[in-house]
Amino acid sequence: MSDITVQGIRIRVKDEGYGKPILFIHGHPDSADLWNAVIQYLPKEGYRYIRPDLPGYGESGDGKGFDLSIENRGQWVADVLAAVGVSEPVTIVGHDHGGVFAASFAVQYEAQVSKLILMNTLFHADTTWHLFAILWRTPFIGENMAFWQRYRLTLPLLKWYMRRGEPSLTNDYLSDLQKTFSRTMGQQMHRLYRAIDPELFEGWEDKFHAFIGRKATLVLWGAEDKYLPIKFAERMASHGAQLAIFTDAGHWLMVTKAEEVAHKIIHFLHEIE
Fold first, then answer.
1. Which of 45, 90, 93, 142 allows an S-S link to 136, with CB 3.0 to 4.6 Å?
2. 152 in a structural domain
3. Number of domains forming the structure of the chain
């Protein structure tokens, strides 16, 4: 584990192994630790696993000055890779809002992408926000939600709503996640959701679908996800992505289906060389 500076912000990076680089990008409300369970089932040799905390999340620095435009999210990925010394094509894995970073990078830096893996993510102009996203995007209401969540007073509500997106989440995972919630993360949460209106993906989505038609892409999707419907996974598959649907899982596959997710990733890496 080490710290790097990217676009003027201190970023914590979990970096282990040697070999072909794989960059894992988490979403909200997680950190680089989201991928711990999957990593333990992946090969111990031949691969380098790089997992940054997004600006304002986990143990990274305050992201209040971070440009959250779609374009800069891809640029940030390029800057992270440069900072950790990766110059060869890389496999990118993105989940949730981390998928926006991954897809933006793929569109803008296609030559630097070996393979792309997305899990329950958004990059679609017809995305509709779920209830909590609407509240987080609402001035004053969102700030008050973050304040009370920081002091654990909304933990029961958080657990209930996250289980709507992933029924199998354990109390231990949810409690550990709540411990990482800080004032900095709460502020960045609002910026993250307020920076993107779904229509901003217009044009980007078309470029992304063209990318899928040219480069190996794997989509892993939990069918019980109440935040992001399966139609988005099927749309990516219609443009050439490989699709694996987990009928008994939801939004956090890498937590509840870690071993199965790892096996899908390994097969994809070995199949597409």
1. 142
2. no
3. 1
